Amino acid sequence: MIQQVLFAALSLTAIWLFARKAGEIRRNIFLGKEEDFSGNRPQRWRNLLLLAFGQKKMFRNPLVAVMHFVIYAGFIIINLEVLEIVLDGLLGTHRLFLAPLGSLYDWLINAFEFLAVGVITVCVIFLCRRNIIKLRRFISKDLNGWPRSDANYILITEICLMFLFLFLNASDQALQLRGNPHYHPAGPFYFSNFLVPLFQNTSESTLIGIERSCWWLHIAGIFAFLNYLPYSKHLHIILAFPNAYYARLDPEGKMKNMPAVQKEVLYAMQPELAPADAAPPAHFGAKDVFDLSWRNLMDAYSCTECGRCTTACPANTTGKLLSPRKIMMATRDRLEEVGRNINQHKSFVADNKSLLHDYISVEELRACTTCNACVEECPVSISPLEIIAELRRSLVMEESNAPQEWNSMFSNTENNFAPWKFAPDERDHWTQEMAS
Amino acid sequence: MKVNTMADMMMNGETPEILFWVGCAGSFDQRAQKITKAFATILNKTGIKYAILGKEEACTGDPARRAGNEFLFQMMAYQNIQVLNGYGIKKIVTTCPHCFNTLKNEYPELGGHYEVIHHTTLLQQLIDEGRIRLKEGGSFKGKKIAYHDSCYLGRANDIYEAPRKVLEALDAELVEMKRCRSKGLCCGAGGAQMFKEDEPGNKRINIERTEDALATGASVIASACPFCNTMMTDGVKNKEKEQEVAVLDIAELIAADLA
């Protein structure tokens, strides 16, 4: 009975804490500007299935995709077992699903064990890739400090959770063998069975202690993990789904229009169309997270810092400061800072900082070739390019901050109708050379 | 061979099948002019009734927009759309993927609705229809050609196959760089980089890309964008390979082998 009450208290606390933080993240995302992503539902559902559930983009590298899929499937499917654990915890029962499911139960638990071993194997391989093989995208300075530890903590936690599950089954099995009536006959299961001999000389009370500890640590671990998510790159396991649903459906080459500027140019060209009270827009492009759209901000929270974007980025590859992954991480960091500011003061109090300059430098922005390689690579439908473009707009239109060569390009375009200093009359000069 | 402008055609009461949007590089840049002339030669040969805007054409505003100057972009778009709509243009072909992308994807919501195709797509159609016939045993037969994907054609607009299909018609050996199609590496010119120096780094992007191309052992690097062409040409020169390796636009390759 005490265990049941404790369990209920633990679950409620964990869920309440998570819900509160999730609410904060939602609030932060909607600090962004409105942008319409409704419409075209069939395509959106297809994207949700293919990109999020099917992890289509991951299969650009099939081996890694299969390994990642094992962790993903393992994690999701083993959570079915968590349902039983939660119900057992609340009702004070043991292996609640055994009786109703009959022989299917053993089959299911065996499947879970297979997945658990798969998850452990892949997590170990992933730890090696990060820490021993040192792939370029993992040793990048983008990840210095917390982000690098974060990735390792997640892998280690997953390994621990899976071992707890296996030891839970093994100690249960050992107790069954001793005829303890509370432990209903189930199994033996493929993998935990190998662990049973470890408990040969363990007393029954210790064994019960081990079984209970595994059970508690497993479920407590899952609750802890749930509450760790919002602070981690691992939040992508949730946000990859809405991010895929709200994936941008236009061709990648299309830049977001600025209707306010469009109108202003129209009124300048055709003053008769201008309404008497036409007020100029407050500002152009994005200087801070508030100026980006909610979609950009959801991108920032969805980023799992894998660095595929940065590996594909031509600027980063050739040693420039720009890293699309860092753009996303900086956006999230700034947004979190703004969130903390709001928590503290009820509403945002100016802090003399902004995403542009304080988090993302001019040099980074200047290096982008708008080639869309980062957008193409992202497995969770993020566009770092959109943020770069919005910040560039602020730089040029708000601060008139452009390199001299660009200023010449602007004035040539304006005066000679070409980005170079050629006389407009020469534009069709080539046709004369065609005459021959 | 006379190249008609829309104004000429209007005066004669004629309507072209298609407008050839030359673009600023194709109009002014000496190297890119050769691409323009090659493409115009092909159009003349096939007998397609086409016209250019001539002096009435202006920059689409692509580099200004990507640099962040939306005002300038909107001004250019406004002027161009006025001219295009004034002539009642329905269909546009262009040899520049940047113009292509802007005309096709960005002008519609500003009031410019046209069917826009890139010259590689048109060339593929013309070859398929038998309207372009190539010499038997042409100058590229058996030669290794590596196609460099333009970002604004490939990732930006999902056109990967048309340029390759055209190259196959040359009876050459098409080789791929290790980074190709949707993984193709940028030449370094996009996003208005063409008009400024690289940011500090350890290498120029066009050098990195040229190394990809040279690694294939190809004797021709085929481009489909005047800016990529410039960047790759510079890269090849930098590697002192201009004797062995030519950088040519797909239109130039086809024009050289016309039957």
Provide a compact summary of the structure:
The complex is a heterodimer of chains A (436) and B (259). Chain A is mainly alpha-helical and 436 residues long.
Describe the structure in your own words.
- The complex is a heterodimer of chains A (436) and B (259).
- Chain A is mainly α.
- Chain A has helices spanning 2-29, 41-53, 62-91, 98-101, 103-131, 136-139, 146-177, 204-228, 236-245, 259-269, 294-302, 308-312, 314-317, 324-345, 355-359, 362-366, 373-377, 384-399, 404-416, 429-434.
- The longest helix of chain B is centred in the N-terminal third of the chain and has 17 residues, at 30-46.
- In chain B, the strands form two sheets. Chain B has a four-stranded parallel β-sheet with strand order 2-1-3-4. In chain B, strands 6-5-7-8 form a four-stranded parallel β-sheet, with helices on both faces.
- The mean pLDDT of chain B is 97.
- Chain B is α/β, with parallel strands linked by helices and 259 residues long.
- Chain B has helices at residues 6-11, 24-28, 30-46, 62-67, 70-86, 97-106, 119-128, 161-168, 205-215, 226-238, 250-256, and strands spanning 18-21, 50-51, 91-94, 115-118, 144-147, 173-175, 220-223, 246-249.
- Chain B has two domains: 6-123, Rossmann fold, CATH 3.40.50; 135-256, Rossmann fold.
- At the A-B interface, α10, α13, α17, α18 and α19 of A face α2, α3, α4, α5 and α6 of B.
- Chain B: One of its GO terms (molecular function) is 4 iron, 4 sulfur cluster binding.
- Chain B: Keywords: 4Fe-4S, Iron, Iron-sulfur, Metal-binding, Oxidoreductase.
